């Protein structure tokens, strides 16, 4: 007999079957020795009250053997001789587009401007040692996209638009840990995700698809308002029946190329701000309501804050418990930071983006001459200002959080996880006033909700500017094709339709299905 059981337990009770098996037996009114197996179906933490609790949803087997654990298996067909679809970008949007195309019977040709995982790791190691950024191989560009080396969180709110469970199963099939199938906020980690991404690439190649690195697209081949293929920087031409544009939020050259070709792009709302870092122990104390911290049975605590300051949203973004701040610029004279967490989330630091909503009408007048690309130029300027006020290299401008809120210069800085280093700088003055003043108001509000959040051992660092792109590539909501160009499918975070690994993956699957509908309707 199998029965579904829900239990609300203390962290210790939920940590091991030896603790919760007697509680299951008591609830079911059976002897513990009658229970043959217990499997966790779902797990979540509730830290809203002073006593932190863990919710477990269990499959319990009584007086009968449990079947072998189910594992979804994906058998990708041979598509080597099928119609070819070009997928630009090997981030989550592009990779999931490619795998879904294979399932639907089409051959993907994935073009990635950056390097493979193993080669990309070498460039990132140099970046962390304050070497100049490689504009094609960094924390944003390369196999797996920005998510590979910036945390690997899988939470999404876009489940109404696609099958989130399938996304998790695909990642699990390609090597992600079992926990992502049961945790309410699944996380793979930057140490585990590269192996998963490499396995996905192998699935594409083994099925007859292609994955080409160091293949930066510089132009589109268009005839009679229909895309026929692409041109690479080395002038090579590649043809396909459709093109999926999954280039990520930092491929500014793509937006500029489209704009120059009079292919419509549009300005959109995005966000910029800083990355804030606290000692993880402090965040544990605040979030778990315990001066002793999280103890032996709870994971590193996270947080999520949002409020309105002067009619604009101020919110936390990409919170990384037990993580590190990393350099995320993609070109010279830029200062951009991001966050990441390994799978164990065992760093002594917690960091998060803290950003302010920016609407097209908020962009200063001097950038209006750039038209729909004004947001890109404004974003570049803020990054340049932080570069100048840092070390004119990868050393980041930074300030104690208490000083930032009080508009004071920091005379020294607390310890930070940011390896290239930080230098005291008046970020409250360096950042545009519309951003800094709202951030100050947001921090004060968050400090009221989370007592102790505004702490002198917390550091703010600039700039967190790549939350998303200030530009969207418009598409028809039904066909998912560009409104002007048949066969061109904007996809994922760079196209302005998703954010993060899971959402971009879902959007990639939807784009693949839209490609199949277009080809089938020809």
Automatic annotation (TrEMBL):
**Residue intervals of the FAD-dependent protein C-terminal domain:** 270-467
What InterPro entries does the database record attribute to this sequence? FAD-binding_protein, FAD-depend_C, FAD/NAD-bd_sf
- Output the Pfam families linked to this UniProt entry: FAD-depend_C
Q: Which PANTHER family match?
A: FAD/NAD(P)-BINDING OXIDOREDUCTASE (PTHR42842), FAD_NAD(P)-BINDING OXIDOREDUCTASE FAMILY PROTEIN (PTHR42842:SF3)
Q: What is this protein called?
A: FAD-binding protein
What is the scientific name of the source organism? Plebeiibacterium marinum
